[in-house]
Amino acid sequence: MTKIIAFEGIDGTGKTVQMKCLSDYLKSLGKTVKEYSFPMYDSFFGSIVGQYLTAKDGIAANTVDGKSMALWFALDRFEAFRGEDDSIYDFVLINRYVLSNAVYQSIRDCDLGKPDILDFCLELEFEHFGIPRPSLNLVLDMDPAEAAGNVDKKGFRDYVGNARDVYESIDSIQLRARKKYREYAERLSDVVFIPCMKEGKLESIEEIAVKIRKAVQPMLAEDQK
Questions:
Q1: Interval 179-196: pLDDT, tens
Q2: Which of 56, 85, 93, 209 has the fewest CB atoms within 10 Å, i.e. the most exposed one?
Q3: 197-198 and 191-195: which strand pairing?
Q4: Burial zone of 64 (CB within 10 Å; 0-12 exposed, 13-18 middle, 19+ buried)
């Protein structure tokens, strides 16, 4: 059975790098792997998400009603999975998934004092749209200041150029997002935290990759039964 692993965490935690590391590792073991990265800014719905994240046309993502914003992200995934048969792969790796949607649409300034929308996002994406549930959510955990420095090193990106997007540019959002990921980890059984820092210093890419391989090991052991 195909195993789905989502890479989560605040902006700048190295999700793209670590997903590539795990993909290479799994392929070295003879596993077949498919990769997704959301939002898909070159898709119809993903391009609209990009417009909100850059405040193009004067509307910023952090000012849109939470459920409405969550719907745009969800539609991007619905479109990506529609018609795809990922059951032919041993592993599907995803950079940002449903957990990110629930986190970021629950911690903006306009969301403060309101109930979070975790249950709404889970029902919307998994039950209504029928996108596949992850076997495991790996949350890369890092100090927001360290993560912000990594964001600034990303260079040019199609949807935002060399700048930060709306969520990346607001430090309080990143702080609250980190806290919300921890809260959800206590509520959901499929969330595993991957500490990326030790004694206040960022660990190496390989050190973090080793922790991820350890978290994935039970899945590999299942294949050997």
A1: 999 999 999 999 999 999
A2: 85
A3: unpaired
A4: middle
Strands, DSSP E only, in 38-154?
91-95, 136-141
- pTM for the full predicted model: 0.91
Which band of pLDDT confidence, cut at 50, 70 and 90, is reported for residue 157?
A: very low
| Angle at the Cα of 160 from the Cα atoms of 152 and 145, rounded to 5 degrees | 25
Reduced to 3 DSSP states, what percent helix, strand and coil does the chain have, rounded to the nearest 5?
Answer: 50, 15, 35
Q: Where are the domains of the chain?
A: 3-223
* Residue 5 vs residues 26, 85, 149, 184, 216: alpha-carbon distances, Å: 12, 16, 26, 17, 9
Could you tell me the fold of the domain covering 3-223?
Rossmann fold (3.40.50)
Distance CA 49, CA 72 (A): 6
Q: What's the rounded Cα separation, in Å, for the pair 188 and 8?
A: 14
